[in-house]
Amino acid sequence: MDARLLAARLYSGSESPGGGPYRFTAPIEPAQARRLVAAFNGGFKMNAAQGGYLTERRTIEPLRRGAASLVIYAGGSVAIGAWGREVGMTRHVVAVRQNLVPLVDRGRLTALARSPDWQAWGATCGASSCASSVPGIEHQWRSGLGITADGALVYAEGPALSPAQLGALLVRAGAVRGMELDINPDWPIFATYDPPGGRGLASPANGHVLIPGVRGADTFFQAWWARDFVTMSARPDAQR
User: Fold this and answer.
1) DSSP characters for the chain?
2) Residue range 62-93, pLDDT digits in tens
3) Does residue 239 sit within a domain?
4) pLDDT (tens digit, 9 = 90+) per residue, 16-33?
């Protein structure tokens, strides 16, 4: 995703991060659908994210030093990095979504991503059930977000990934820094929208998902959707 052409925005939900009300929350409204190009899931619920959350210039959960952070600036430009190292608070920051610790750093998997401790990257569902009585498995639905050296965003997801495999996908795509987003079958989703003729409103009818799964392109247009997510919208002055 070319950040020179697309502007990011963080949408917040009643379950993650909780609280509210928020100006930007599901469903995506027509005013925002006019330039919408893509949308994708956020991270864990805050009680499992091991990090903080800032949106609409308001701190919902305290930001944690060292946490993997997606940072969105006024105007929609983005950065990814460890909080307090590659990224930090400035007057231009309008949103920060933290989730665990970095998965990719300096174009390589981090030590924790390479380690056998896959449980450090979140509790997973079992092979056939998400019931708490069923043991979780390492190779499960996972999603992640990375940034390249020239500032492009890279999203990756898959149905049978270990943390190391997810990180390797981001590295292969050119990410120099990256983080895990949400995991397990119900939550990873990346959707793009393509109104006929390039005009009109983005909608479920012209949406397409990256990988078929539990959720469809209509997810972010539903008022009941209670999780945070990120939209990428065409900049008014973008030159194509």
Assistant:
1) --TTTEEEEEE-BTTTB-----SS-SSPPHHHHTSEEEEEE----HHHHSS-EEETTEEEE---TT-EEEEEETTS-EEEEEBTTTB---TTEEEEEE-SS-SEETTEE-HHHHSS-GGGG-----SS---TTSPP-SSEEEEEEEEETTS-EEEEEEEEE-HHHHHHHHHHTTEEEEEEEEESTTS--EEEE--GGG-S---GGGEEESS--S--TTGGG-TT--S-EEEEEE-TT---
2) 999 999 999 999 999 999 999 999 999 999 99
3) no
4) 999 999 999 999 999 999
Question: Considering the domain boundaries, does residue 79 fall inside one?
Answer: yes
List the domain range (segments joined by +) for residue 151: 6-234
Domain-located, residue 1: no
Is position 200 within any domain? yes
Residues 57 and 35: their CA atoms lie apart, in Å, by 23
Place of tokens 């991060």: 17
- Domain total for the chain? 1
